[in-house]
Amino acid sequence: MDAGGTSTRALVATPAGERVGLARAGGANPNTHGTARAGRELARAVGAALDQAGPRAREDVVAGAIGLAGVSALRDDRVRAALVEELLLVGVPADRMVFVGDDEVAFTSGTPEPDGTVLIAGTGAIATRIEGRRRSRSADGMGWLIGDEGSAFWIGHQAARETARQLSRGTALSPLARMVAKRVIPGRRPVQGREHLPEEHARAFARTLTGRPPIGLAELAPLVSEAFAQGDEAAEVIVNAAAGHLAHSVHQVRTPGERRPVVLAGGVLLGSAPVHEALTRKLALGTAGSPLSTAGCTAGAAAWLAALEAGAPADDTRLHAVFTAPTRDGRSDAA
Length: 335
Hints:
Elements: E1 2-3, E2 7-13, E3 19-26, H1 30-33, H2 35-53, H3 57-60, E4 64-68, H4 77-89, E5 97-101, H5 102-110, E6 116-121, E7 125-131, E8 134-140, H6 152-169, H7 175-184, H8 198-210, H9 221-229, H10 233-253, E9 262-265, H11 267-271, H12 273-283, E10 292-294, H13 298-309, H14 317-324
Parallel strand pairs: 1-4, 4-5, 6-9, 9-10
Antiparallel strand pairs: 1-2, 2-3, 6-7, 7-8
Helix pairs in contact: 2-4, 5-13, 6-7, 6-8, 6-9, 6-10, 7-9, 9-10, 10-12, 13-14
């Protein structure tokens, strides 16, 4: 399973990598959604996948791996026990399941190597050093309030600030500010007249955003890529700054001169060509000679880790490719 903050994906596969059950459920990060909901979503996803796999699937399970966002919550034995209990209720042999971090699964989805670095830039952002397929250290991942620099939230926040600045000036809006204002306050126009200042229009924009969940600013990130394609100067600044923050996080967890692989994952890196290209250029300055790859199917990567637990050879790169190939709809599951 790959259990993130937004969705959970469960895959049942044979030791040869044949996919016999695949199901989705809601987010299962215990830090974000609470232990009870996380347990229910884990159970719902894996239970449905096992139902697809056939009537004997539960008793035939030999190993399982759960890549869990917020895996640090399992340091609390009560949280771990509650999640295990939910799995047991749907007939999952919890004693054959191992919990790992979602960053460990994301890394594995992009390479069969045991050591390297994974950079995840989605709603949030974190860079993790992987050793022996396990997390050894990380940079950022501090959440939207004090970190996650270069993430979709960070990019959307910068876009909103730039839009407010332009609205305050009362001059013609750039492509970026025009798109953001249209998304946030559609149909509204500055009130004409001497007594109405441009900054009041900006304050109306700000009040609208303030009344919404802050993390929703991540939804503005794709507009930056669109404006970048139109030559918007502010969008270019935001894209390059985001790439710089992400590259810095990668360099924080690597040692100078190492040649271990770097895996890129998350919606920003897989969905924004401008950020991906700018990041690749910046990474080349400090990771020359390191293989750079994008994440594959993360649920498949978790299944491959389970296969290793069951005795599959770690050096079989063909088998790894079978497990981590994107799903039929082209999704990597790491976006």
